[in-house]
Amino acid sequence: MMLLSLLANPAVRPDLFTARRAKPAAKQSRWLRMAEGISLWLAVLLMLFVHPLYAEARQMDMEQPGQLYLMNDQSARQQPALILDSDFRVHVSGLLAETRLTRVFRNTSDQWQEGIFVFPLPDKATVFGLRMTIGEREIVGHIEPKAKARQTYERARQAGQHAATLEQHRPNLFTSRVANIPPGESVQVEIRYQQPVAYKHGEFELRLPATLTPRYMPGEPLAETQGPWQSGWALATTEVADAHEISPFTVRPKDVDGGSHRARIGIEIESGLALADVSSPSHRLYTELDGARATVRTEQEKVLMDRDVIVRWRPVAGSEPKAAVFHQTWQGEDYLMAMVLPPETVGPVLRRELVFVIDTSGSMAGDSIAQARSALLKGLETLRPGDSFNVIQFNSQAHALFAQPVPAEGHYLARARRYVQDLRANGGTEMAGALSLALGMDSGPGGERVRQVVFITDGAVGNESALFNQIRSGLTDRRLFTVGIGSAPNMHFLREAARWGRGEFTAIHSGAEVDRALNRLFAAMEAPVLTNLDVRWPDQGQPLEPVPARPGDLFRGTPLVQVVRGLPAAGQLQVSGQLPGGRRWSTSLDLAQAAPASGLNRHWARGRIDELTDAARLQGQTPDEQQITELSVRHSVISPFTSFVVVEQRQARPETESAGSQSIPTLLPAGSQPGMLRYPQTATFAPLFTALGLLGLMFSLAIAMLNRRSSL
C-alpha cells in the first residue's frame, strides 16, 4: 500500500529505475492481494472445521480422562467380525440362584480371531465353573493364580490351540478371552455362577446384568501401561490402575450385527413358598405358576442386551417367611445358612439432617437424570418440620446449594425444588469431592439431629475401593444411603457404599419405579429396626467363621442372612437385638428343621474372601493373597487373585495362519445419551492437531504477506 501511494503522488519524481519497476510492482501487488484474500478465506474455513473437532475433544476430555480411540485405515467405524450370542439358564432354590451363562463367539471374518469381552455379572456372584465347547468336544476349565492363568492362556494362544480364560476385575466385572476362533466357525464358552436372591419387604428379586455404563476413570493417564492385555478405550491412571482392562467399547445396537448381543432368558423358581405372582420392571415375561414353582422366560425369544434383566416374585399373602434355615454337607463338612426377618415395628419420630447428593455427570444424561431429579424431589417431600437439609450436585466438581443444612421450611424447600428441576447432566464423575463435601459439612442450627446422606447415582466409576475407604474414614456419626439410577447401574458400588456407610440401598430401574422404591427407602431411613445384633450358634468348641462375621443394623423389611461352616444341623440358633426405644427382642430357630440346599460352601467361601479383603482394607494392608488363593482353589470359586482357564491340548490353527484380536463392545444402556458411546476409533486427536497445524500455517502466510507489503 505504501508503494501505491508513492506512485500516485505527483510530488515524487520517479527516476528511470522507478519507471522501469512501476508496472511489475503493480502486477505483484495484485498477486499479493489475491494471495492474502485466499489465505484469509482458508483460515476462516479451517476455523469452522476445527471448532467442532475442538468441542468434541473437550467433551471427551471432560467426560473421561485417558481416553483411547482406535480407527481402521479408512477412519470409519466397522462392525465387529465376532457375533456374540448369550443364553441365561437360571435355577432358583430358596435364597440362592445358580446360572449357566453360555456365550457363543461366532467368527464372520476370513481370519482366525481372538475374542475379548468385558462384561458384568451380579455384584454378589460366585463364579465356580468354566467350560469350552468346539463342535462336539467339551473341555472343562480349572482355577489357577491369575498371573499363571495368563501365562497358560498366552502360551496356548500363540501355539494355535483353542483356549479361554475368565478373569475378575471387580466383584461384578469380568473379562472373557477366547483364543483361535476359526474363520466362519464358533466357539462356545459356558460360565457357571451363583448369586444370593435379594429379599426385601416381602418380595424376592433376581437381577441379571446384561451391559454396563462406561465408567469414569479419575487420575492422570499412565500411557506406558499399554500392553498385550490392553483391551479398552481408557488408559490406566494414577487412581485406576486397571482402567485399560475395565473399559469396554460401548456402541449402539445398529453398530453390531443384527443377530449379535441378544440373549435368551430362562428361569426356574423353586421358592418353597406358594407364589402369588411373578413380575419384571425391565421386560415383558411369560410365566407358568404351579404352587411354589414357576417357569419364567421373556416374551421375546431373544432380548437386546442393553439393560439389566430384573425378575421379582411374591409369596401368597400371609405365607411370607419370617425365618428359614438351610443345610449342606460338602466334602465331609457341614454348612448352614440362616435367614431371620426383624419384627415390623416403628420407633419414635426423630429429627433428621438430610444431605441429598445427586450425580449430574455425563453418564447420567438421558433417562437417568430425569429419574434422579424425581428421586430427589421425592426425598424433599419426606422432610418434616424440625428437619434440616441441603442439596449437593456433582460432576467434574461438587457444589452445595446452601453453605450448611437449612431448616425444612417453605422458602428453602421452594428454592431447592427450583434448583433440582434445573439440573442437567454433563462432565466427569468426581465422586471423591462430593463425598468430602457431604461428609465434612457442618450441621445447621437447631439442635441435635440424626445425620443422613442420600447419594443418588449410577455408580459409573472405576475407583470404587478408594471411595469405600473415604466413606469409612469420613462417616463419623452419619449414615449413607444409596439410590441406584439407570438401566445398568454399578450395583457393586451402590451396595458396598451403603454397607460401609451403615445404611441401605435401593435401585430405580425406570421412572415408574421412583415412588415405590423411594417410599420403602425413606421408611427404612426413619430408624433401624434392630440394632446391637447378637447371633449365637450352638457351641461346638471350634471357630465357625460366620459370614458376615459382624452383621450390621437391620432396617425395615431387610433380613439377617448368615452362613457358617463346620456346624451340623442340630441345636438352637439364638438371635437378639435392640428395638427402637431400647426394648430387647429375641428369637430362636431349630437347626434340625433345616431344608437341604446346595452351593452353601461356595457362598461361604466367597463371603470369607470378602471378609479377608475388608479386614486388610480396615488395617491399611494388602489382602492375604496366599490364604485367599487357597480358599479360591479349594472351593473352585474365582477371586481377585485367581482366574479360570481352559485349554484344548491339540493345535487348531496352522502355523502358516496368523490370528487377529478383537474386543467385543457392550451395548449403550437403554435410556443413555450418545455422549456415552465409546467407539473403537483411533486414539488421538490427530485430525484436530492436523487442522490446527494447517490453521497456523495459513495465519503465518497471511502475516508474512502483510509484513512484506509494509516493507515495500
Automatic annotation (TrEMBL):
Occurrences of domain VWFA (ranges): 353-525
DNA repair is among the record's keywords: no
Gene3D superfamilies: von Willebrand factor, type A domain
A Pfam family recorded for this sequence: VWA_3
InterPro entries: CHP03788, VIT, VWF_A, vWFA_dom_sf
Keyword entries, A-Z: Membrane, Transmembrane, Transmembrane helix
SUPFAM superfamilies listed in its UniProt record: vWA-like (SSF53300)
Transmembrane portions of the chain: 685-706
Domain VIT intervals: 67-195
Protein name per UniProt: Marine proteobacterial sortase target protein
